Amino acid sequence: MIPADTLRYKKAAECHAAQIAALVQQTAREIYPQYYLPEITDAFCSLHDESAVLQDIRRNTVYGLWLGDRLIGTGTTRQDHITRVYVLPAFQGRGYGSLIMERLEREAARRYASVQLEASLPACLMYEHRGYRTIGHGQWPVENGVILVYEIMEKQLSSKEP
Questions:
Q1: What strand order describes the sheet that includes 70-78?
Q2: Is 69 in contact with 120 (CB distance < 8 Å)?
Q3: Alpha carbons 41 and 148: distance in angstroms, whole number
Q4: pLDDT tens digits in sequence order for the chain, 162 residues long
Q5: Helices 17-31 & 38-47, crossing angle to 10 degrees?
């Protein structure tokens, strides 16, 4: 159960870029080696470095979830696309990722009838439980001839607000 009175979900400010990037790096380095080759983990980390996070913060599309004063999760929207949803490993399995997804979906539903995302292997089941379905697969060549194959998923949103 999530203690709602101690949680804060809000848009990230530029001063949060390093903290969010560190959260993503820590989560990827702890979780992804169970699923991916090192080249893929490294590619995820470079894709979501501090400069990329800062660029999205400047677009006003990055959100953070704080438990007390500690950042424990993050998510980003880009129009009808959700990306960079990460929850620190110590806080996974408690509903925090679902809470972030609910808020991001609500934000997208204001302007779009559906939302898409690229799913990492560790997150696919959560997305399926949230009503996402696989609509395709993508490939991303990384170092040493390694290729990441990922699912492209979509969810129809319940209502498009004016």
A1: 7-11, 62-67, 70-78, 81-87, 114-119, 147-156, 133-141
A2: no
A3: 10
A4: 555 568 999 999 999 999 999 999 999 999 999 999 999 999 999 999 999 999 999 999 999 999 999 999 999 999 999 999 999 999 999 999 999 999 999 999 999 999 999 999 999 999 999 999 999 999 999 999 999 999 999 999 976 544
A5: 170
Q: CA 24, 7, 18 angle in degrees (round to 5)?
A: 30
Helix (H), strand (E) at residue 150: strand 147-156
Distance between CA atoms of residues 150 and 125, nearest Å: 13
> Model-level pTM?
0.91
Distance CA 52, CA 21 (A): 9
For strands 81-87 and 70-78, give the pairing.
antiparallel
